[in-house]
Amino acid sequence: MSDDTPDSLIPYDEIVQEALRAVVGRVLGQIESSGGTLPGDHHFYITFKTGAAGVSIPAHLKERFPDEMTIVLQNKFWDLNVAEDHFSVGLSFNQMPTKLVIPFAAITAFVDPAVDFGLQFQAMSEPDGPEPHDEAENDSPDSDHKSGGDDGSNVVTIDFGRKK
């Protein structure tokens, strides 16, 4: 038996990332359905890729944050609207009201410091079709098992810290 873990042809990491992004959508959806009021001390830090497909932010924010930006949903936000694949929210930047549209696929981190909860994601790109995969090594009748340099592991960071 070999210690090498074979590459998976099932995109487990993508499936898990998508499921965890659904957690963000569900939480924001609950806030939306409660009238946009955060319960207790809950507040959210949401980090996203500003250049990701579907992100809509003003040009001055895109210039200031060309790669990644973190927003805070706490006291002053409005018009939270949650759809299946994105959310939009109104926030103020230098006393200027602004509407942001952020696809869940663009989110790289979601944190609720009030309860020490956080999720980190890999940035997702828009799929143009199925991602190409290498041919499975065991599909070729004349191939011997080769050991690759990649151990095939994929790690998703989830922080379920508890307050003491």
Provide a descriptive summary of the structure in words.
17% of the residues lie in helices and 27% in strands. The chain has helices spanning 12-33, 59-64, and strands at 44-49, 68-73, 78-82, 86-93, 96-103, 107-112, 117-120, 158-159. The protein has a single domain (12-125, 151-159), classed as SspB-like (SH3 type barrels, Roll). The longest helix is centred in the first third of the chain and has 22 residues, at 12-33. It is globular and about 55 Å long. Strands 2-1-6-7-8 form a 5-stranded antiparallel beta sheet, covered by helices on one side. The chain has 2 helices and 8 strands, in the order αβαβββββββ. With 164 residues, the protein is α+β, with helices and mostly antiparallel strands.
Summary keywords:
164 residues; alpha+beta; SH3 type barrels; 17% helix
Q: What order do the helices and strands come in, and which of them pair?
A:
Blueprint: H1 12-33, E1 44-49, H2 59-64, E2 68-73, E3 78-82, E4 86-93, E5 96-103, E6 107-112, E7 117-120, E8 158-159
Antiparallel strand pairs: 1-2, 1-6, 3-4, 4-5, 6-7, 7-8
CATH topology: SH3 type barrels
The CATH architecture term is Roll
Tertiary shape: globular
Number of helices: 2
Strand order within the widest beta sheet: 2-1-6-7-8
Q: Which residues form runs of ≥5 with pLDDT under 50?
A: 126-156
| Tally of distinct domains | 1
Largest sheet: 5 strands, antiparallel
- The H-level CATH homologous superfamily, spelled out, is SspB-like
Head-to-tail CA distance between termini: 44 Å
What Rg, in angstroms, do the CA atoms define?
20 Å
Please state the structural category: alpha+beta
